[in-house]
Amino acid sequence: MRREEVRMAEEPLRLVQFTKSFHIGGTEVQVVELLRGLPPSYRVQLAVLQDQGPLMDSVLRLGFAPEVFPLNGSLARPNSALQVLRLARWFRSQRVELVHAHDFYSTMLVVPAAKLAGTKVIVGRLDLAHWHGKARRALLRSLTRMADHVVGNAEAIRRMLVEEEGLPAERVSVIPNGLDVARFDARMREGLKAPLPDTRGAPVVVHVANMNHPVKRQEDLLRALAMVRLKGQVLHAYLVGDGPRRPELERLAGSLGLTDTVHFLGHRADVPAVYARADFGVLCSTAEGMSNAVMEGMAAGLPMVVTRVGGNPELVADGERGLVVPPLRPQAMSEAFGTLLADRELGRRMGAEARAFVERELSLERLVRRHDVLYRRVTRGS
Prior knowledge:
Helix content: 40-55%
C-alpha cells in the first residue's frame, strides 16, 4: 500500500450527513441513529436546509451543531444556486470525502455541490417517489444517476431504481431501516403520556400515519371497520397522526356510524406505549418504502395487517409475521381483521415472530454496520 493510501486509511473519514430538517419522520429518525451510532473512525458533520424540528434536541445533545443551507422557498429561485455554491465551498474547506443526502430537497443541492467540489456523494432513495409529479421525478432521476452510489431501504425501491430508472445494479444498495429495540422497550415501559379512550376491554387496532396525503388511505381502514361492525364484531381503532385530511376522515367515520369505536388521537409522543395496548396494527397505504410505523408495531409484538406495496411484504411475511392484503381493498382488510379476531392465539404467534424478526434483522447495530461498510467502500475502496 502506498504511503498516501496508508495515511488515508488511518485518518478519520470526513463524512457529512445532510437532511432537510429534524421534524419527526422516518428519515429523520434514521439520520439521528446514524449520528449516534457511527464509530469514532469518522469525522462526522451535519448539514440541513432548516435547523428545526422536535428531533433537534436529540441532535444537539449528541454534540452536533448543523450547518444551515436554507432554500427559503422554491427550488427555482436564484437562492438555490447560491446555496449550491456555498455548499461546494464548504465541502472543499472541510475536506469532506463523502456526503450522504437523505431526502429529495437535500439531493437537489448536494449532488451538484458535491460534483463541483470533487466530493463523493451517496443519495438516499427511501420511498417510491410517489409524492412527486412528473417534472420532479425526472429531476430526481437525473440527479440520482449522477451520484456515486444510491441507498434504498427496501428491495422494492432497488427494483424501481434498476428497472424503471435504469441505474446500474452495482450502484444501488439496500440497507433496511434500523430500530433501537432497547430504547423502544424503554419507551413502552414509560407508559402513556396522555390517556387513551376507554374501549371497555374490546379489541383494538392501531394505525400510525400522517393525515397529509391520500396515499395513507385511512378511508380504507374506516370502511373495513364498518364491514367488521356489520358482521356483529366489536373492534376499536386508534388513529395516531394528524394533518389537513383529518376533518374529512372524521366526517367519513361519522357517516359510517363509527364515532363510538374510531378514536382520532392526533400526534402522540408515546407511540410504543399506544401499540402496547393494542391487539394488532394496520397500515393501508398505496405506496411505501420501509415503514417505521410497521417496524414499531412489530417491535411491540403485534401482528400487522399491511397492504402489498413497497417494503411492506418484506417486513410482514404473509401468514408468518402478520397478514398482507391488496391495496384499495377494504373488504380484504376486514377479512384479515376477522381472522385475527377469531384466532387470538394466531395473532400472538405472529406477533412473537414479528418481534423476533425486528431483533434479528432490523437492529440499530446492523443499520450502522452496513452504512459503515458502504461509506468506506465508496470513498476508500475498503
